[in-house]
Design goal:
- By secondary structure, the protein is α/β, with parallel strands linked by helices.
- The protein has 2 domains: about 375 residues, ANL, N-terminal domain (Rossmann fold, 3-Layer(aba) Sandwich), CATH 3.40.50.12780; about 100 residues, GMP Synthetase, Chain A, domain 3 (2-Layer Sandwich).
- About 30% of the residues lie in helices and about 30% in strands.
- The chain has a 6-stranded mixed beta sheet with strand order 9-11-12-13-14-15, with helices on both faces. Strands 16, 17, 19, 20 and 21 form a 5-stranded antiparallel beta sheet that branches. A 4-stranded parallel beta sheet has the order 4-3-5-6, covered by helices on one side.
- A hairpin with a 3-residue loop joins strand 24 and strand 25.
- It starts with a helix and ends with a helix.
């Protein structure tokens, strides 16, 4: 079943219910929303020949049109490719090319002019290029699809530094959405899901269950995260719910304390996407009360590995309450998890090993990458690459990441990408990039640099070089210039020693 059918059915039953707001202002009812999605789908089909299984990319900030475009693509059985708007256009162009997308929507419709590497056969359109008031195609029900057809192609980088396309099916999305009210939080038609985090990621994935129940989606006028704006919208709209990285919660709580705001109007904040330190969630509970739920997931198993609902997060009565709050919760109802050793054999309770996941939300595989798929999906189990342990009650505590991914502000940054960008600078001889703990962002990017003899590039010079090639948020926050890098007998850089060195300096 096409998951866009949920919008179609809601529009039939509640056509006049508010569906999308830009701030406090109503942008569309559910009748408007479904009509726009159907018309966008017809436009893509009739004007650009987009059909079943074709890929359409969206490379833009959060906007009311985002939801319409998303459902317009799904409506005709095509596959949506949401691209992180923070990426450099060159990086986005690589993803669009790899996905073999035929159309990309951007805010201006002219973002890729000027040699950014977009394939010549890809048509770039602005998000407003399909005016809602000028579309006349009839509103037919969404196209039929197989449960295993790819609905959402999500690009996440691997250890090689090149993004991989995660194939998320209609079944994956439907099961993910139906599991949410069982394990994460109840949902109501009176809710106002707010999109303060990028809709290309987890925040956007959380639209489906709210569409099904007929809640009203809210796009902040800032198109992003602004603590003062969130507090204002919560007070005026009430029943606000949203997904946030831990660093966003920390900033929101800091703002709340400066203006004496106690969270009124916010019903639930779901956090994930990075480590939430125990002291930070305890502080947030002190300021806002029991308004928090936690999830742990990956692009390969979107939003659905483990969860802790608000009662578990806020509990102080259980003997193990503190340890539970420091965990990432229990396996969600749609999956099974286990802890395994390097040979993928089960480990006893309490022992640390790799987290493996099996269930109906695990991806179909990586787009055009059978080698990576076979290495990650083994006998039906997803190898997450994360290390953790299960307690006797089933709570999962993550202890480390087996990959070198840096999570800063809830966003994954892959050291190889940064290293490759910096190594193209003529003054850089060797480099190693690692993550270091950061009080506000979770982690920051630190680069150990060996320069070529006779050169002395400044940190500012290297930062400008980075920003010309990769997204600004990936650039190092600190540069440490060293005469050489520690290596093992095979010449591999020992990042463990660099982390220890960094710890000694802090």
């Amino acid at each position: 079943m096409n998951i866009a059918t949920w919008l179609y059915q809601t529009a039939l039953v509640r056509p006049d219910a508010p569906a999308i707001r830009l701030g406090n202002d109503l942008y569309a009812t559910y009748g408007d929303f479904a009509r726009s999605a159907a018309h966008i789908g017809a436009f893509l089909c009739d004007t650009h020949g987009i059909g079943h299984g074709d890929r359409v990319a969206i490379f833009t900030r959060n906007a009311p049109e985002y939801l319409e475009l998303l459902y317009g693509v799904l409506w005709i059985g095509a596959t949506v490719v949401p691209v992180n708007h923070k990426l450099h256009p060159k990086e986005a162009a690589w993803i669009i090319a790899n996905a073999e997308a035929r159309v990309v929507f951007t805010e201006s419709g002219t973002l890729f002019t000027g040699g950014t590497g977009l394939p010549p056969d890809v048509r770039e359109l602005s998000i407003g290029s399909v005016p809602r008031d000028q579309l006349t195609a009839p509103i037919n029900s969404p196209a039929g699809v197989s449960d295993d057809d790819t609905a959402w192609l999500f690009y996440t980088s691997g250890t090689t530094g090149r993004p991989k396309g995660v194939m998320i099916t209609h079944r994956n999305l439907r099961v993910m959405a139906m599991t949410y009210p069982l394990d994460v939080d109840q949902i109501f038609p009176t809710d106002h899901p707010l999109y303060a985090a990028p809709m290309s990621h987890g925040a956007g994935l959380y639209n489906f269950h709210y569409v099904r129940i007929g809640a009203c989606h809210v796009i902040p006028p800032s198109q992003g995260f602004d603590p003062a704006e969130i507090a204002s919208l919560a007070k005026s709209l009430e029943n606000i719910t949203f997904f946030a990285a831990p660093t966003m919660i920390k900033r929101l709580i800091a703002h709340a304390q400066t203006v004496d705001y106690n969270g009124d109007g916010i019903r639930t904040i779901i956090y994930g996407g990075g480590p939430m330190y125990l002291a930070d969630i305890d502080h947030a509970l002190d300021v806002f009360g029991p308004r928090f739920a936690q999830i742990y997931g990956q692009g390969e198993c979107p939003m659905t590995i483990t969860a802790m609902n608000r009662d578990l997060v806020a509990d102080t009565t259980h003997p193990d309450a503190t340890q539970r709050r420091a965990s990432v919760g229990l396996a969600q109802a749609c999956v099974e998890i286990r802890i395994a050793d390097e040979d993928l054999k089960d480990l006893p309770t309490g022992e640390v090993g790799e987290v493996l996941v099996c269930g109906d939300t695990v991806m179909a595989g990586y787009w055009r990458n059978p080698q990576a798929t076979s290495a990650t999906l083994v006998d039906g189990w997803l190898r997450t690459g994360d290390l953790g342990r299960l307690d006797s009650d089933g709570f999962l505590t993550l202890t480390d990441r087996s990959k070198d991914v840096i999570i800063s502000g809830g966003t994954n940054i892959y050291p190889r990408e940064v290293e490759e960008a910096l190594l193209t600078h003529p003054d850089v001889y060797e480099i190693a990039v690692i993550g270091a703990p950061h009080a506000d962002w979770g982690e920051e990017v630190v680069a150990f640099v060996v320069v070529r003899v006779g050169t002395s590039p400044s940190p500012e010079t290297l930062t400008d070089w980075c920003k010309a090639q990769i997204a600004s948020f990936k650039k190092p926050s600190r540069y440490i210039f060293v005469p050489d890098l520690p290596k093992n007998s095979y010449g591999k850089i020992l990042k463990t020693q660099l982390r220890a060195q960094l710890g000694e300096q802090s």
